[in-house]
TrEMBL record:
A motif (Q motif) lies at residues 1-29. It catalyses: ATP + H2O = ADP + phosphate + H(+). One of its GO terms (biological process) is response to cold. Its EC number is 3.6.4.13. It comes from Scopulibacillus darangshiensis. Signal peptide: none annotated. Residues 32-202 form the Helicase ATP-binding domain. This is ATP-dependent RNA helicase CshA.
Length: 481
């Protein structure tokens, strides 16, 4: 079904055309008409399949730019995502003149207050800053018609639930509530339904939770060998644009510095950096000034950066949902991608837990040798010669080439050129702080070690880490009040 077949205003249809959208994606086809009818819904579809427009079109359609109140609000877990969602809604609202304002932490609040005075119809916010504005009465939610939780399962997990509850309490009870995510574990869905009125569940039935355009594999590797293995894979894959996920902020700092030391153009992003730095890093990544983005899970959800060709999970993600979102930064909007996950021997049970949730097997890759990495780089050098040959723009070099050929064998000459061009694998020593293997995360609200009851003993015998892992997911994600 096409956007032209929807009952929406011409101004919005024109915007979708301008954005290059013609056919709707499956989630858009199902969710947009339902959302337009005013019902509450939970929309679940794989990463990179257009969930933003699935809620964006109904929001922009319902908004009246002549009305001075905030009418729609989207809450997202990270600042970058709040900005990106606002950009997409502004693109959709361009001809109807519906303005969406991003409101997030780390940005000058006075500047936000000035922008709010211009009366945006829709706000795309992170929860903390939104609550701040609600308290200051610089944002009023009395006349909100629609609330969207993007990355809904993340918004409703323990870290965010209280903020979300507080925001929802400020909105009229007759509001429409829309929840979207690629993952929706059952305990979270049940929790979500408390905030909704007989929600419709729109789930795009797929055999797997992950997009089949992503080639998924894992490599078994010892912690201290991870870095060399990563650089060898990078030398073989020569990714156009890749994201390397690390578990902690320190890890991300160390890793991107180590990559730079070995001659890669890498930058790091995590939540302890200033917003100005986060913006700069992301901009440099999008502008091709940086090939490798090293990130914590702050970059795992929702970010739509075109042509991310590879995702490397240098450290295992905390839970299978996080795996789904991380690798979903590649293979978007029908493109292909490659995801490679590093697993230390003691972490192997986590692999099974991830596969159980994604319903997808990962292929095992062997850690490449130095020699294989060298061959990778030689191939890259060869490729750059043939690419240059195809581009044809070499007139300035032809005379030199003829002179060289007068005095040398052609094969020797090309071999020398290849040798010069090949970036031989760099083995500059680097040191990363040891990161212990992923264990089931303990719930901070549980009694301390030794004082626990049944569950503790079960976990201590440790013969079934897989269960512990799953158990952990549920504990982390169920609201305990
Ligand atoms: N109907 C469409 N036709 C073509 N491209 C589309 C269409 N809808 C969305 N897109 C593009 O697909 C890409 C992914 O969309 P979007 O970011 O909304 O995915 P998502 O489902 O929200 O993914 P995630 O789960 O990672 O948040 C974007 O670049 C968007 O512009
Ligand atoms: Mg999204």
């Amino acid at each position: 079904m096409k956007f032209s077949e929807l009952t929406i205003s011409d101004a919005i249809f024109k915007a979708t055309e301008k954005m290059g959208f013609d056919d709707m994606t499956p989630i858009q086809e199902k969710a947009i008409p339902l959302a337009l009818s005013g019902v509450d819904l939970i929309g679940q579809a794989q990463t990179g399949t257009g969930k933003t427009a699935a809620f964006g079109v109904p929001l922009v359609e319902a908004a009246d730019p002549m009305n001075k109140d905030v009418q729609g609000i989207i809450i997202a877990p990270t600042r970058e995502l709040a900005i990106q969602v606002a950009d997409e809604l502004n693109a959709l609202g361009r001809y109807k003149k519906v303005v969406t304002l991003p409101v997030y932490g780390g940005q000058d609040i006075q500047k936000q207050i000035r922008s709010l005075k211009k009366r945006p119809s829709i706000i795309s916010a992170t929860p903390g800053r939104l609550l701040d504005h609600i308290k200051r009465r610089t944002i009023r939610l009395d006349n909100i018609k629609q609330v969207v939780l993007d990355e809904a399962d993340e918004m409703l997990n323990m870290g965010f639930i209280d903020d979300i509850r507080a925001v929802l309490e400020k909105t009229p009870s007759e509001r429409q509530t829309l929840l979207f995510s690629a993952t929706m574990p059952k305990p979270i869905r049940l929790l979500a339904e408390q905030f909704m009125k007989n929600p419709d569940r729109v789930k795009i039935q797929a055999k797997t939770l992950t997009v089949d355009m992503i080639d998924q594999s894992f490599v078994k590797v010892r912690e201290r060998e991870k870095f060399d293995v990563l650089t060898r894979f990078l030398d073989i894959h020569s990714p156009e644009r890749a994201i390397v996920f690390g578990r902690t902020k320190r890890r991300v700092d160390e890793l991107h510095e180590a990559l730079q030391k070995r001659g890669y153009t890498a930058e790091g992003i995590h939540g302890d950096l200033t917003q100005a730095k986060r913006d700069q890093v992301l901009r440099r990544f999008k502008n091709d000034q940086v090939d490798l983005l090293v990130a914590t899970d702050v970059a795992a959800r929702g970010l739509d950066i075109s042509n991310v060709t590879h995702v490397y999970n240098f450290d295992l993600p905390q839970d299978p949902e996080s795996y789904v979102h991380r690798i979903g930064r590649t293979g978007r909007a029908g493109k292909t991608g490659l995801a490679l996950t590093f697993i230390t021997p003691s972490e192997m049970p986590h692999l099974k837990a991830i596969e159980a949730v994604t319903k997808q097997r990962m292929k095992e890759e062997k850690a490449p040798t130095y020699q294989e990495a060298l061959v990778g780089q030689q191939k890259a050098a060869m490729q750059s010669i043939t690419d240059t040959l195809a581009s044809g723009n070499m007139d300035n070099y032809k005379k030199m080439a003829e002179n060289l050929l007068d005095e040398n064998e052609s094969v020797d000459l090309i071999a020398a050129a290849l040798k010069v061009l090949t970036k031989e694998p760099d083995t500059t020593p680097v040191k990363l702080t040891y990161e212990s293997p992923l264990m089931a995360k303990r719930d901070k609200r549980r009694p301390p070690r030794g004082k626990g009851r049944g569950g503790y003993h079960h976990r201590q015998d440790g013969h079934n880490r897989n269960d512990r892992y799953k158990g952990n997911r549920n504990r982390k994600r169920v609201h305990h009040n």
